[in-house]
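REQUEST
  id: r-88c1
  op: predict_structure
  target: Glucose-6-phosphate isomerase
  payload:
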Amino acid sequence: MNAPVDPTRTAAWSELTTLRDSFSPDLRGWFAADPDRAERLSLPLADLHVDLSKNLVTDDVLAALLRLAEETGVAGRYQAMFSGVHLNTTEDRAVLHTALRRPAGSSPALVVDGQDVDADVQGVLDSLSAFAARVRSGDWRGVTGKKVTHVVNIGIGGSDLGPVMVYEALKPYADAGIQARFVSNIDPTDLAQKTSDLDPETTLFIVASKTFTTLETLTNARLARDWLWAGLTAAGAIDDTDDARTDAVSHHFVAVSTALDKVAAFGINPVNAFGFWDWVGGRYSVDSAIGLSLAIALGPDVFRDLLAGFHAVDEHVRTTPLEKNVPVLMGLLNVWYVNFFGAQSHAVLPYAQQLSRFPAYLQQLTMESNGKSVRWDGSPVTTDTGEVFWGEPGTNGQHAFYQLIHQGTRLIPADFIAFVNPAYPLTDGGQDVHALFLANFLAQTKALAFGKTAEEVEAEGTTGALVAARTFAGNRPTTSIFAPALTPQVLGQLIALYEHITFTQGTIWGINSFDQWGVELGKQLAMQIAPAIEGDAAAIEAQDASTKALLAYYAANRKQ
Ligand code: F6P
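RESPONSE
  id: r-88c1
  status: 200
  body:
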């Protein structure tokens, strides 16, 4: 693996520093002086229309950012990723989530480390589709012969956030009378509430865990198994024998994992397990067998359409020159804001209730990928890295935190995502409600870009101190992502867009965006503290003073 290029030592970085020093954002002036700005800076990305024109960039800045991409070898890193180079250096793994969405019959076949990756991917996709079709048709039944009405995905992180986000986004496609639920938290409330109204006879659990070692997931899987046995026994559906219990598990539990041996050890029949590979990172895995709940609830065809959407963006990023390459440009803009404006966060604001979980999904994708202080060769990073991603669907956010984006002291670049056609076209007294919703999307990006001057405020009759309070500085950068409708393909395109934005930023900063060692320490300590919280004196004694005091508070207030 080549040593990372230090971005701060490139000629492009010096150029950007000089440009920033004399930079005076003026979206009003730039739009007035250049009637083509919106058209020039709006680019197609498969079915998406991406308007970058309300960003704080001039042609000079864009040119320098593109030179930064060249000097840091962005194109070469993409080529390396697509061809299966072990870019995940700390785990010595290829990074091949893009292989999960290559169409069947792609030529030449992708062979990595001696494995025909295409054949492996298509094999799992076929068996997953066949299984989903069986559950949907009622050919697969519970232990008492009833059709499945609910699938409960038990997983966390990448084994949860992708499936739940996509399910919420594409629920209008759920047409087989099967609902999906998602249990992730080890807080027992999660499993208790999500199963409280379910019938064990018609419930299918999917235990989704790449490693099949994750404490939360395995604990919840055991709780679910107990719930199943207890419910079936109480209903007189099974007797209290090991054979009956094993039989119940084989009808009501399937698994998705890269560790099929561990699946068998849990008691799930390996015939009912769907695999994937270590070259798929957890947060990049919704398009692997981890999407089984989606293939069941939404249908295998919808799942394949989602994959086709991902692939369209993969092809764009792989083949489009940098200056028209939307994920690369958006990644470069993020670097511009983080490293030259000190932006610490980035808002993602979907104007679609169906994308309510999209910001949470992106938090893992972006922050687990680029929240790093060392580069891929182990040396310290040379500049700030991953920003905080956050957001809520419009218009809810407008009535909560937009105040700070409009008039606060921090620069918060924001991506607005909207769809021309709604899933539910309702009218209110003749008014198309979705059109009204979209008017808000357009109004917000306009207000953020162009603001409102004191003169304009005064012209409305406002005087005194209120003038300053009602003035908007503008020049708050936004990107508008517009698409005809939230279809499976479009959703796949959106997810892949953010995957590649993340990779572009990681590459420029010299980061391995595919490991996540920062989550390990907490996991280790939780295992050490677990006996202490149960009262083990030696374990308590081994803690620091603050933890000891918190344990004492727990012991004093524990009811049972
Ligand atoms: O702890 C973080 C993490 O490793 C994520 O990267 C991953 O998506 C999640 O845990 C769940 O892991 P698994 O799928 O192996 O249960």
